């Protein structure tokens, strides 16, 4: 399906993020209005029919002889989901309820606990809690493995089934049993479900001269919220602004349209992102339109291992155009494109259909965005487990940068010596990070120091604004 925009503003082609939420699905979303059948291009049709007969035989044997009666719809949906999940980590089936939940979530509101999750070793793995949600307030952390829900093991459940169990009416409770790296014993948490309305953009002035805006996800409100935040802070700063920090850490993705628009807000021209599909005619490209909402302010983008999908599109576009300095640690590395295809009356399938590429032509699939300046959030013990990324997921697509030309990145546009003032590690004895205390956020403080040093090294530019 090509081309036209839906009423909601979503493109007919785009990207779906890597994470499920306890309440819905998150990721840059493609929602074609109808499904078209595509003829099988290769293969032996007789063999295909033989295999379909094999499926039918097994289905009938299960219905007839399984120890307990089997619901036909459940069996078929499980088979469909198994077929899709066997392709790669991001293809899957959504029943009608899950599809409706996903549509609600992309509008910026959904029910649940407020955690983005994936599946690992049969357990539910937390990618990131969403800011100011029951999960975040209860202390759920990235990397946590949820092993039990209300005392019952999640082993044997599909990821979708586990997500559905974590949904529920506002005010109802659920008990999570968590296995946390570094903890000797399981952690028991009781959470009260709520309607999740995450504040997609949080912003403030750091020291009255640096604008800080954190994007928690990419839903239909993200770009307008970013515009409002930057406009407000520029007025508050009264002409003393030294730069902008765009915080995409632990942002697992969202709508492709929003990732393109956010990138476009900082760019005057040039490519933002492109996709390449199995058939060349299905490939697409998005370009920036004139107009920078910041009027050329200096920009630092913060990323880490929880920055995925749409976040990586934005970071990659601004990095390739040298519009921003990317600071932090390597991002998640999800560079595949999923199309959400509605099946009338039966939900939808999420199918990997392409890879996406940054303006220089590089795929970040399995590699992630490497920051221009690496800054660790805390001093790491050599024995501490590394955070999983896309390349660690079973069945993840390979990176294909070796099959096409990739343009080298231009030199970093920083005055001499400015980057050298950034510290890679917090000092010995630095306080542990507390989300309520920005002064304990080492990466944030290094980004602010970089912008101030950058501004001090360019007095003529500062005076010209």
TrEMBL record:
One of its GO terms (molecular function) is serine-type peptidase activity. The keyword Hydrolase applies. The keyword Hydrolase applies. Signal peptide: none annotated. Keywords: Hydrolase, Protease, Serine protease. Residues 99-167 form the PDZ domain. One of its GO terms (biological process) is proteolysis. Residues 396-438 are annotated as: Disordered. Pfam families: CtpB_N-like (PF22694), PDZ_6 (PF17820), Peptidase_S41 (PF03572). It comes from the Bacteria. PROSITE patterns: PDZ. InterPro entries: ClpP/crotonase-like_dom_sf, CtpA/B_N, PDZ, PDZ_6, PDZ_sf, Peptidase_S41A, Tail-specific_protease. GO terms for cellular component: outer membrane-bounded periplasmic space. Transmembrane segments: none annotated. Belongs to the peptidase S41A family. This is S41 family peptidase. The lineage of its organism: Bacteria, Pseudomonadati, Pseudomonadota, Alphaproteobacteria, Acetobacterales.
């Amino acid at each position: 399906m090509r081309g036209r925009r839906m009423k909601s503003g979503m493109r007919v082609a785009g990207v779906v993020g890597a994470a499920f939420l306890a309440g819905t699905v998150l990721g840059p979303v493609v929602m074609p209005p109808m499904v078209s059948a595509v003829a099988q291009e290769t293969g032996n049709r007789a063999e295909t029919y033989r295999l379909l007969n094999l499926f039918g035989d097994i289905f009938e044997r299960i219905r007839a002889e399984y120890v307990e009666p089997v619901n036909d719809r459940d069996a078929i949906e499980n088979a469909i989901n198994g077929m899709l999940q066997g392709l790669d980590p991001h293809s899957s089936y959504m029943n009608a309820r899950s599809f409706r939940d996903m549509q609600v979530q992309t509008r910026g509101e959904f029910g649940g606990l407020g955690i983005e999750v994936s599946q690992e070793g049969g357990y539910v793995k937390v990618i990131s809690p969403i800011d100011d949600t029951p999960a975040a307030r209860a202390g759920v952390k990235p990397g946590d493995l949820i092993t039990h829900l209300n005392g019952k093991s999640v082993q044997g459940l599909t990821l979708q089934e586990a997500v559905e169990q974590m949904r529920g009416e506002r005010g109802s409770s659920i008990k999570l049993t968590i296995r946390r790296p570094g903890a000797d014993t399981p952690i028991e948490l009781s959470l009260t479900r709520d309607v999740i309305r995450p504040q997609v953009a949080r912003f403030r002035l750091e020291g009255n001269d640096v604008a800080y805006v954190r994007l928690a996800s990419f839903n239909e409100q993200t770009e307008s919220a970013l515009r409002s935040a930057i406009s407000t802070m520029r007025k508050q700063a009264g002409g003393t602004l030294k730069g902008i920090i765009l915080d995409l850490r632990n942002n697992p993705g969202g709508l492709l349209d929003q990732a393109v628009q956010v990138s476009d807000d900082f760019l005057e021209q040039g490519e933002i992102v492109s996709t390449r599909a199995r058939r060349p005619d299905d490939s697409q490209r998005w370009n920036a339109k004139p107009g920078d909402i910041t009027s050329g302010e200096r920009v630092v983008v913060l990323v880490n291992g929880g920055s995925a999908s749409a976040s990586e599109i934005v970071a990659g576009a601004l990095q390739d155009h040298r519009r921003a300095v990317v600071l932090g640690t390597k991002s998640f590395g999800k560079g595949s494109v999923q199309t959400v295809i509605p099946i009338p009356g039966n939900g939808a399938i999420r199918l990997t259909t392409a890879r996406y590429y940054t303006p220089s032509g590089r795929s970040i699939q399995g590699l992630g965005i490497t920051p221009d300046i690496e800054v660790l959030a805390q001093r790491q013990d050599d024995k501490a487990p590394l955070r999983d990324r896309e390349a660690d997921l079973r069945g993840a697509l390979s990176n294909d940068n070796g099959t096409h030309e990739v343009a080298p990145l231009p030199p970093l546009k920083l005055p001499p010596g400015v980057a050298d003032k950034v510290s890679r590690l917090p000092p010995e004895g630095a306080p542990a990070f507390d989300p309520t205390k920005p002064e304990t956020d080492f990466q944030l403080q290094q980004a602010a120091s970089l912008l101030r040093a950058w501004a001090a090294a360019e007095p003529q530019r500062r005076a010209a604004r």
